[in-house]
């Protein structure tokens, strides 16, 4: 097991009817900016619940944060923060709204001229404007971690940021919100959380027995609840397990002491930036090819995953490892998620070369748990995913 | 799944050579009280490592905190805190030293006349004197939770306290400390952590799929590493997994959203108070009888535990559940832990009646996950454990 540090101060408030606890978590004298996305919260009743819960707090609103939170839109929100002397941010939404809010938390206190530098210059946020979240879409785990991914349409870039100042002070997780989420988004959330676990687990054995079992526990739980959530999103038991699994998949716990990969995300982000494919679906496109291409480096963990998660106990290590990749792809397909780039666009010619070039231009010369994934290898993996 | 709130702000610093990071975690201007136990840290080198790591910080020392931290001793430490204007506490030890430090953290800021009231009047500590820990004995999980158990010899009482102000600010976990722990203490630590998980798991199914799997993960890991740790405590891989499992067994995570029992601890504490039997050993004495006595209420979870942790897949629910109790008792025995009260004392006559009376006198009329364990039932369980 590798040495590690772990600190996660976010307060989770989980369960039925928890949105009404909102006002207790925000200082009475705060001036709050309520941030949300495309307005679905106004249709499903969550907006009304939040407004009622906020009571007499002084609240300004900013809606319209798009999926893959866009820098230009966030810069408009930043103007509101400055103009209105906002002191507290409240994200009501999924990963995009929460990630956008994290960017604003950092940008609001940023001393430089161009907040985009936070992303391009890898500036760690030690202290941001305080914020909380009401999660409306389980998927990214952003509600209990300190990372964010921001998109800039102008340059077709999608970059990550983070730092200990970016943990939400609190996150309210009411699994009842899942009842009104469209099936497409549910399938995306399941795929996203599942892949988050794989990125932190599907590397090589390092003797972190408990972290491995925790990762497998999340994968098993997602596999168990996925068909139930899709068949009936009002099934509270399935919804609650889905929601908590998504949070635990990326709150830092399972990555402590182990190597992690994240190459699937790095490649997937480019597919979203180039084609606008849903984030989760890009992961399902890249993951099977990535695991096949890096089979030798990952086969021990693939075989362990085969045995413990998919109950594949027959055959050699190679047999089990390969079968596990097939099972993973079949799982995504069963959720209604296509796993080839050509399922999403007919314009894929040259994509692999373009992504490899972008990685080289950014100086990303060795991704993955062994830092061995060169732009040339990235090109091959993306081609395998056509 | 039940509604829950979860917040655990303790910073964990885990791994080889981490004690040297100590000074960075304590404010430069702090006046530190270094608390420790019977002096084993002076023999095994940890004291020297800590003193070196503390560098130029202003440090006063208080040693001699006994196992089952004793109120009278702690009151002497409280006098030192007041006399020396201490501002920061540092526990270097196992659960007893850390629990004692938590009592002092609370008592140092307590406004009342008699700090014992914190325990007898169940006063929650919202804010205590800040403290950190260097863990020298994995077992209790106290290094990452906000609870403590304090003993008062004078009244033969052993009572619990807690509150959000009692999380350590940081805890340093260097698995290398395990190399010098005597076998008896290692066996105790394994048993203690194992039973902590059982208390939060062996109740009834409530559909908390992930919490169940996390609990099973900790049990499986403890079973896997226990013989290795006992055979060779310098085996770093086994030691690291043992240490992290003990912390995760009682840092709040696995108890969120599920019922918990804790009757084994309640009865066990009385055996320590009456006979001075090691805490962990009292749990191993009580647990098998407790599960047999409450068989019908717990058999579904017992059978799940049988299947997933012990791979017992044959037979009826009752068969599997019963076999799991046998496996648990055998596991304790394999660690060198006796599981009958008569193995520890020949003076056990009347113990069951005495404990039942104490529970009744304290108004503890319904322990366990169903609050159904009356003093009469406690008497029967303790008798079964003779």
TrEMBL record, chains A, B:
Keywords (A to Z) from UniProt: Oxidoreductase
UniProt domain Fe-containing alcohol dehydrogenase-like C-terminal: residue ranges: 189-386
Pfam families: ADH_Fe_C, Fe-ADH
Superkingdom, natural source: Bacteria
Annotated Alcohol dehydrogenase iron-type/glycerol dehydrogenase GldA domain residues: 9-175
PANTHER family tied to this protein: ALCOHOL DEHYDROGENASE YQHD (PTHR43633:SF1)
Protein name according to UniProt: Iron-containing alcohol dehydrogenase
UniProt source species: Mariniflexile aquimaris
Species classification: Bacteria, Pseudomonadati, Bacteroidota, Flavobacteriia, Flavobacteriales
């Amino acid at each position: 097991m590798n040495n590690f540090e772990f600190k996660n101060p976010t307060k989770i408030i989980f369960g039925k009817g928890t949105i009404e606890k909102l006002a207790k978590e925000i200082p009475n004298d705060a001036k709050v900016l309520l941030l949300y996305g495309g307005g679905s919260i106004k249709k499903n009743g969550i907006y009304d619940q939040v407004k009622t819960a906020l009571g007499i707090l002084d609240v300004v609103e900013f809606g319209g944060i798009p999926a893959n939170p866009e820098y230009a839109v966030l810069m408009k929100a930043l103007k509101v923060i400055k103009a209105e002397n906002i002191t507290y941010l409240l994200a009501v939404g999924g990963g995009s709204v929460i990630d956008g809010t994290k960017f604003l938390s950092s940008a609001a206190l940023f001393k430089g001229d161009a907040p985009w530098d936070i992303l391009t210059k890898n500036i760690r946020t030690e202290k941001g404007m305080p914020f909380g979240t009401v999660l409306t879409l389980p998927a990214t785990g952003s509600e209990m971690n300190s990372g964010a991914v921001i998109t800039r349409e102008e340059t077709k870039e999608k970059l990550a940021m983070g730092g200990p100042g970016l943990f939400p002070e609190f996150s309210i997780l009411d699994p009842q919100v899942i009842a009104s989420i469209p099936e497409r988004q549910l399938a995306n959330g399941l795929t996203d959380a599942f892949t988050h676990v794989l990125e932190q687990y599907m590397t090589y054995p390092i003797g972190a027995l408990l972290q491995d079992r925790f990762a497998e526990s999340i994968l098993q739980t997602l596999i168990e609840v996925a068909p139930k959530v899709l068949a009936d999103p009002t099934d509270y038991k399935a919804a609650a397990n889905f929601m908590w699994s998504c949070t635990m998949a990326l709150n830092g716990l399972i990555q402590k002491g182990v190597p992690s990969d994240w190459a699937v995300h790095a490649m997937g982000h480019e597919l979203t930036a180039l084609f606008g494919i849903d984030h989760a679906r890009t992961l399902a496109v890249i993951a099977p090819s990535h695991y096949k291409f890096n089979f030798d480096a990952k086969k021990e963990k693939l075989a362990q995953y085969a045995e413990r998660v998919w109950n594949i106990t027959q055959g050699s290590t190679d047999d089990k490892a390969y079968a596990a990749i097939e099972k993973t792809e079949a799982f995504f397909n069963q959720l209604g998620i296509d796993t080839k780039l050509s399922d999403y666009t007919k314009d894929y010619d040259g994509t692999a070369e373009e992504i490899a070039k972008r990685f080289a231009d950014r100086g990303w010369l060795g991704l993955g748990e062994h830092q061995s994934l060169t732009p040339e290898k990235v090109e091959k993996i993306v081609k395998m995913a056509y």
